[in-house]
Structure formats: C-alpha cells, structure tokens
Amino acid sequence: MIVDFVLLIAGAVLIIDGRTPRILAAYVVLAFTVSIFILPSALESPLSLTLFTMSVLLKLVVAPIGILMFLRANPPANDLLPSIPLPARFMLVIAFALISRAVGHFPSLASIPMQDLVAYVVLCSAGMLVVHRNLLAHVMGLLALGAGITFAGATLAPTLPEFVELGATFDALVATVLGLTLVRSIVAHSPILDVESLRRLRG
Amino acid sequence: MIGIAIAAPLVAALLTLAFRAARQRQFARVTSAALAALLTLAMAGRVDALSLLFALLVSTLAFLATTFSAGSFTLDWGTTGEVWSRKPIYFLLLATFWSAMLLVVLADNFALLWLGITTTTLATTFLVGFSGEAAALEAAWKYLVLCSVGIALALLGIVTLAHVSIAAGLPPAQALAWTSIVAHAPATAPPLARLATALMLIGFATKAGLVPMHAWLPDAHSKAPPPISALLSGVLVSCALYAIMRTITVAAALGAGPTIQTMLLVLGALSTVIAGMMMLNQSDLKRLLAYSTLEHAGIVALALGFGGPIGRLAALVHVVGHAFAKSSAFFAAGLVQRERQTVALGALHHLWSTGAGGRILLGAVTALCGMPPFGLFVSELLLVAAGIASGQWIPLAFGLIGITLAFLALVRTTIEVEGGKPAAGAARPPSSSRLSVAAAGLALAGAAVTIVVPWTELGTMLNATAAMIARLP
Q1: Domain annotation covers residue A203
Q2: Could you give the angle at which helices B457-470 and B308-340 cross, rounded to 10 degrees?
Q3: pLDDT class of B84 with cuts at 50, 70, 90
Q4: Which pLDDT does position B79 carry in this prediction?
Q5: Which backbone phi and psi does A185 adopt, to 5 degrees?
Q6: Which of B15, B16, B320, B392 lies in disulfide reach of B28, CB 3.0 to 4.6 Å?
Q7: Rounded CA gap, B137 and B306, in Å?
Q8: Which domain holds residue A69?
Q9: What is the pLDDT of residues B337-357, one digit of tens each?
C-alpha cells in the first residue's frame, strides 16, 4: 500500500511539476522503487544480477549525476517548460490513475500481478515526454519509460530475468549516454533546450 | 559461426586501425569490409532463407557504404583537422551499425532481434549528428527520442509475447524463438497475443518510419552523411520491415494475423499518400529521397497487409529493389554534394552533363519511380495484383495515389536538376573519388538486376522465402 502511494506521488510529480531538480528526485524515487520490485527476479542468475547492477548504476547513479552536473553548468535548464497549464496536468494524472485502475478489470490482464501500477508508471513516463518541452525532460522520460517497461517485464515474464535486465540495461544506456551527450552538444546552439527549436527542421 | 559473421565487420574495422599510412588504411578498410561481407555467404544452411536474404542485403550494401565512405573521406572529410580526428570513430560506428543489423537479421528469436535494433540506435544516433551542425544534432535528437519510444513499445510487446508463450507451455528459453512459438502456438490465442503483436508492430514500424511514427525519418535520413543516409534508408528500414515480417509469422500462428494485416494496411496507405504529398513540396534533394523512403516503406507495408503469396513476394522483391535503388540514390546525392557543394534543388541544374553524380542519380530516380529496367517495376505490378486479389480496394487506391504523387515529384525534380547545359566557360566541378562512383554504380546495377530475379531460379527461391512470412516450414 505504501509502495502504491509512493509510485502514485512520484508518477504525478513527473507530470505536474515544472522544476528539473524536483522531477529528477521523483524519477529517482520511481526508479528505485521499481528496482526493489525487480530485484527478486534479478537474483535468479549471475548474468541477470550483473545486468541488473549495471542498469541500476546507469539509472540511479550515472544519469542523475550527469543531469545534476549539467544543471550546474546550465541553470536555464532548471525549468522544464511545461507545454500545458497546471490544471490540465492535474487532470492528466487523474486520467492516468483511472485508466490504470481500469486496466486491472480486463479479464485477459487479471492474471498479471500489479498490472495497474505497471500501467500507471508507463503512462506517466510516456506523458512526461509529451507534457514538458525541455529536452532534459525527454531524457528523464525515456529513463522512466525504461523503468516502467522493465517493471512490466518483471511482472509479465519473471522467468526471463536475463532478457528483461538486458532490455533495461540497453534502454538506460541509450537514454543516458546518447541523451546526455546530445544534450551537451545541443545546448551550445539552444541554451534553454526548448523542443520548439527542433521544429524548424520540420518538412 | 553466426557470431563470427556478426562480429566480423566490427573486428575488421578495429584491425584497420593498425595501419598508419592513409592509403594503406583505405585499402585495408575496403578489403576487410569485402571479406566481412563475403563471410555472410557462409550463413547459407545455418539460418533460414529469409534471414539469409536479408543478411546478404545488409552485407552487400554495408560493404558499398564502407567503400563509398573510404573514397569520400579522402576527398571531403579528410581536410579539416577536427573531422579528420573523428574519421576512425566514423568507421567504427559504421561497422557497429553493420554488425547490429546482421544481429537483427541472423537472430532466431525476438530477444536478440530487439537487442540488434537497439544497438543500431546506439551507433546511428552519433552518425546522424556526425557533422556537428545544429540541424544534424536536432535530427539526431528526434531520432533518439522517437525511436527509443518505439523500441520501448516493441520491448513491451516482446515481454507480453513471452508471457503468452510461457502460459502456452513453452520453456522460458524458447519463449521468444519464432520457430518454437509457431510450433506450439495455442489453438485459440488469448487477447494478450493480439496486444503483444500489435505493440511489436507499432515499435518496429516506428523504426521503419511508417506514418504516424515517421517524424524522425526525413530529418535523420537527410542530415546524416550520404553513405549513412544510404544505409539508414536502404538497409535499416529493410531490417525494421524484416522484424515486421517475423512479427507477422508469429501473429499468424497465434491467430492475430488479421489484426496485424489490417494495421499494416492502415499504416501503409497513410505512409504512401502522406509521403507522396510531402515529396511534391521539397526543396532539398536528400530530404526528397528521405520522403521517398517513407513512400516505399508504405508500399511494403501495403503488400504485407494484402498478404497472399503475391503480396508477400511483392514485399520481398520491393525491399531488395528499394534497398539497392535508394542506396544508389543517396550515394549519387553524396557525389552531387561533392561536385556542387549543395543539395538544394533550386541550386542544382544540368547535372547530367557535368558529373558522375547526376548520371547515377538519374538512374536511381528512374528505379525509385518504379520504371523498367529496375526491380521496383515488377514489385509495384505485383503489389497491384496482390491488392486486386485481396479485394482491399481502399488501401489499394491510397497506395496508387501515393505512388502517382511520388512519381510526379521525382519526374519533375529530375527534369529540373538534370536538364540543360552549363554556360560556356563555367568552371568544371571537382571530380568525385573513383571508389565512391564505383560503389554508387554497383548499387544501381543491383537495383537493375532485381528485375530479372522473379523469372530465374532465384525467383523460385524468393517465392519459397516469401511463403515463410506466413508460415514457417
């Protein structure tokens, strides 16, 4: 019950808040909680445990430190530039919570444990990608989405821990290494990291 | 042996770093890439025909892209200090991209296939933004974010598929192998099987750049260096379509075939029409070619959606023909860029009479228009036959409208950029590297050869391979 509450709040902060440090904290809480759920299946084999350790290091240590260091050097990136007003973001979180509860009522999904929590985490991370215009929000959104998918993997295929952990590690690697490297390069051209600046490429 | 074939391009690229002199290193790059490509032939008998066909396609075109790059780097990218220092990184990333695509098509299960597709993102994001220009970085960003979301959806679909397979009694080690899933598919598939294959289709379709998940494709394919654009458009899109073909096989076995075919018809119809409309309004040669990729991916999706033996054969012939034609078109665009220092359509005229790039471009565009003597002429005829046979008139009409719009856009552009003669006394543009011209010419020859394939022994083999998309032997 406490875990449900923690995930509910962390997921809501990802969408509702507009300041990077607070959203980063919410992401860390979400990824840490999800990792606790995944740990038992990761203990199944040495390979899955190794991959789990790598993905946790990437998601909970390397990525947050990288983002914090980036924020120190580029203070304008503290604002995640939400693209919709606060009441609309509140409504979105409520809608996600209701959809997640409804997921539990589908007969075909009834046998999957914690299906409502998995759906909520995936929806909030995907929502974060859409709601904020700052590119750092996209990096954190991809990381959170990776955590959500790993959560889904651990509940849907607990007997395939190596594959689930491999997926988690690669997701985290792509988001952390590529995301932060590109953000570092893009900030030279667009200091506020507004996604609006990407639109000029549209055909 | 399969592992060796997958690792060979990367190992070859690493070995070439041992050569210090530029000429020796260029020779080593081309020779070792040729050896790595030839190693793919050793896969015959070790993997099924569909994997072998795509592996040969990947290796042939990746070898040509390496050859083109080896020629172009000497002339274009080797003169400024900063880019010169990144040259080995470029070739290492190119080799990683090649190895990752081989992993996609040689894997026998969805776990490794997914890993291969993710690795292509790791390698190509840096290649798309290789020039360091603002527009290239932004294109790389869009590519990263949209493809990562697509890949995440595919992963969600794959773990759901694993849940379905294990529930059907498959051991975990075989839960994602398509041969095992097809052999032990439950008689009545649960709704979760439909959800799993639909998520996989959406994920792989994002990587193939099908509408509405296409926003990254025109930017990434047009901002990457020309040989990388050739591989992204000609081969990576083909690898994503290969993943869709494997998904269709599993979906058909699980009773989700009709759902997936309907989704493919919608995605294919939208892609061809929207790409055709966008092509009419382009001012950049590479961007025009990128939208053409979207149109051709849509045609393959339509052919797979129509289904039946003709539809599946059309899809395979089209993938092979398009891979060669589009690669030669992007190579030619690279040659034109070298000769004219621009790919803005408004600044390109009388290309036919001033350089090799213009001549190869004319051939490549003729192929992309679906005209003889190129393979896409046959596959587009097969597409129409498959559409009529399936009775899917509305998607067929959308497809034909899209093909017509794309044809008009390409013909109009060709007339504008190829025609006329340069003014007397105008400076001759710099000549291109012979290696690069040879790579572009060979790719164009490949596009022409595919027209005879359906009437040869290879055509019989291709028919048998196409049948595997619906049901594994």
Answers
A1: no
A2: 110
A3: very low
A4: 39
A5: -75, -40
A6: B16
A7: 38
A8: 2-197
A9: 888 888 888 888 788 877 888
Residue A202 lies in a domain: no
**Which pLDDT score, from 0 to 100, does residue B453 have?**
78
CA dist B265 and B285 (Å) reads: 29
**pTM of the predicted protein model:** 0.92
Of B129, B219, B287, the CB nearest to A182: B129
Output phi, psi for A82, to 5 deg. Answer: -60, 140
Determine contact, residues B170/B180, Cβ cutoff 8 Å: yes
- Give the distance from residue A1's alpha carbon to the nearest chain B alpha carbon, in angstroms: 25
Distance (Å, whole) CA B238 – CA B318: 10
Contact at CB, B114 and A167, closer than 8 angstroms:
yes
Q: Per the structure, how many domains does chain A have? A: 1
C-alpha–C-alpha distance, residues B29 and B9, integer Å: 10
Amino acid in the structure at residue A66: G
Cβ distance B159 to A177 less than 8 Å, yes or no, reads: no
Contact predicate B77/B69, CB 8 Å: no
B383-409 mean pLDDT: 95
Q: Could you report the predicted ipTM of this complex, rounded to two decimals?
A: 0.89
A77 or A122, higher pLDDT: A122
Across B33-45, average pLDDT: 87
Under 8 Å between Cβ of B289 and B221: yes
Return the pLDDT at B78.
Answer: 38
Q: Mean of the pLDDT values across residues B217-242? A: 92
What separation in angstroms does the CA of B109 have from each of A45, B102, B112, B182? Answer: 20, 13, 6, 12
d(CA B163, CA B170) in angstroms, rounded, equals 10
pLDDT at A181 over 50: yes
Identify the band that residue B316 occupies on the pLDDT scale cut at 50, 70 and 90: very high
Q: Is B170 strand, coil or helix?
A: coil
Phi, psi of B47 (to 5 degrees): -130, 165
CA distance, residue B176 to nearest chain A CA (Å): 10
Q: How far apart are the first and last CA of chain B?
A: 23
Residue B132 scores a pLDDT above 80: no
**Cβ A185–B132 below 8 Å, yes or no?**
yes
CB–CB contact B125 A178 (8 Å): yes
Q: What's the N-to-C CA distance of chain A in angstroms?
A: 49
